[in-house]
């Protein structure tokens, strides 16, 4: 029985030591080198943090070989890695590390300046100033430290949008990742020595699962350069050149590839597993992919970040018409999902309600945020006999006649955009309270056009350029509204609150 994910890596590095673990452009690293470098790096980390375990350590690096080494080194230390988005404005990075208070931040020459005024220099480790060739480690010391780690100890922290302007740090543990990895190995077509076309940022949970595949299956991670996001043809060429067998992507880029008919020009004959999650994949474009890649198994996965990776899956094994939604399927092994109506009773077939989740896949909560944790992770209303935590997703779904769960939409102001989960309230908070650009405003999301729209009252003469430049100092690009509409007065409901439903109707 696996206690932590490093049990996988030990077996894999002994089985295929010379196989390539990570490819980054012209650079590559073998499993033996990756394991050795991570162990040496863990020794350096421990000298700085004086043997502290079960605490967060942040990584502020672009997605590269050093990121993988650092994350695994942090595991060897018995701590939890927290990857930070290097494109995020400094103020947002400051908000995150002020809340989480990591023991250490690992970075490099390129990004260290972002920490100059917000974090003490003695708690920063610059990988560009380290020569691992001159480092050693003690396997006995490593083993002794890891013997204190159990499967419910934290593995990583992933930050998600928060309504008050400060992101929430979701804590995920070893056991939940091991559960998902074992489910994937025994349920899907993935196997030993997969070649992964790794597109997701290191701050996504998909990246963390790619690490699991690397450790458990000896998979090779081929890092897709961030700059290729705007050039889907070059991404496909990279996949073809490296004979990629597996991808786990957010649908946005897959839609673009379908719309440009690129799979005709750049066929991917090696690709045999296509997974997607994070947002709705329009069925017309999905059918294009399935038509062009007849050899591949397609799986639609669903799950908020508070559920480790995903809690439901749908293996596309039947034809779907272009106007039929792709089901999110059934629950993964060792996870239970159920649908509750507004009275907290179980919904019947074809009755819409809120999807709720229970099981070891649940996150441990939000780091240093007991109030938010208590509000989101609650007692199962169907069970009054003993403590049983569930997570209420806020997603409206139904179960169809086939026993498949169908996603219908959100019940609150949380959206999924470009694979990121965004609290619309956080955008409003920044514009109105932090930046004070307007006195009253409301952010809505158009599912039809995939655009974030900001409505505000006629009280300030500010240009779209000024809106975007000011917001961009605080929020990442994916959270900046695309459209700004000024109204003399925002619609109000009977309680005097802004009528979001009315604005939503205007949007659609």
Automatic annotation (TrEMBL):
This protein's UniProt keywords: Phosphopantetheine, Phosphoprotein
Domain AMP-dependent synthetase/ligase, chain residue ranges per copy: 11-367
TM segment ranges: none
InterPro entries: AMP-bd_C_sf (IPR045851), AMP-binding_CS (IPR020845), AMP-dep_synth/lig_dom (IPR000873), ANL_N_sf (IPR042099)
Pfam families linked to this entry: AMP-binding
UniProt name for this protein: Amino acid adenylation domain-containing protein
């Amino acid at each position: 029985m696996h206690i932590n994910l490093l049990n996988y890596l030990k077996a894999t590095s002994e089985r295929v030591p010379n196989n390539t673990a990570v490819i980054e452009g012209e650079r590559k690293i073998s499993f033996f080198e990756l394991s050795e470098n991570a162990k040496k790096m863990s020794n350096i980390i421990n000298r700085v943090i004086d043997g502290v375990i079960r605490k967060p350590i942040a990584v502020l690096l672009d997605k590269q070989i050093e990121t993988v080494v650092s994350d695994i080194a942090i595991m060897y230390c018995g701590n939890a890695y927290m990857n930070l988005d290097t494109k995020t404005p400094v103020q947002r990075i400051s908000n995150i590390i002020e809340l989480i208070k990591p023991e250490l931040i690992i970075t490099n020459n390129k990004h260290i300046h972002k920490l100059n005024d917000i974090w003490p220099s003695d708690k920063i480790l610059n990988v560009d100033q380290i020569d691992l060739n001159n480092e050693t480690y003690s396997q006995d010391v490593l083993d002794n430290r890891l013997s204190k780690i159990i499967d419910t100890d934290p593995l990583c922290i992933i930050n998600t949008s928060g309504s008050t302007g400060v992101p929430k740090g979701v804590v995920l543990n070893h056991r939940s990742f091991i559960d998902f990895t074992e489910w994937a190995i025994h349920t899907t077509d993935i196997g030993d020595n997969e070649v992964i076309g790794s597109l997701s940022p290191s701050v996504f949970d998909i990246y963390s699962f790619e690490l699991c595949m690397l450790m458990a299956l000896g998979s090779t991670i081929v890092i897709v350069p961030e700059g290729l996001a705007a050039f889907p043809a070059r991404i496909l060429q990279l996949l073809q050149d490296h004979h990629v067998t597996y991808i786990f992507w957010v649908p946005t880029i897959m839609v673009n590839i379908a719309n440009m008919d690129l799979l005709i020009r750049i066929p991917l004959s090696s690709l045999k597993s296509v997974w997607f999650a994070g947002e709705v994949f329009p069925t017309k474009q999905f059918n294009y992919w399935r038509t062009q890649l007849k050899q591949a198994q397609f799986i639609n996965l669903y799950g908020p970040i508070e559920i480790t990776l995903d809690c439901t899956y749908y293996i596309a094994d039947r034809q779907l018409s272009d106007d039929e939604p792709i089901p999110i399927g059934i629950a993964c092994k060792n996870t239970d999902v159920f649908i509750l109506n507004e009275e907290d009773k179980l919904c019947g077939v074809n009755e819409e309600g809120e999807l709720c989740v229970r099981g070891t896949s649940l996150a441990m909560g939000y780091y240093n945020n007991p109030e938010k944790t208590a509000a989101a992770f609650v007692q199962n209303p169907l069970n009054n006999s003993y403590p049983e935590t569930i997570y209420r997703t806020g997603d409206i779904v139904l179960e169809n006649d086939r026993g498949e769960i169908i996603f219908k939409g959100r019940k609150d102001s949380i959206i999924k955009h470009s694979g990121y989960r965004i609290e619309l309230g956080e955008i409003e908070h920044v514009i109105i309270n932090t930046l004070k650009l307007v006195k009253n405003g409301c952010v809505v999301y158009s599912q039809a056009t995939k655009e974030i729209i900001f409505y505000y009252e006629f009280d300030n003469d500010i240009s779209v350029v000024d809106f975007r430049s000011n917001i961009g100092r605080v929020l990442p690009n994916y959270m900046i509204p695309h459209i700004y509409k000024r109204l003399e007065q925002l619609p109000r409901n009977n309680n005097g609150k802004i009528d979001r439903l009315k604005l939503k109707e205007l949007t659609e």
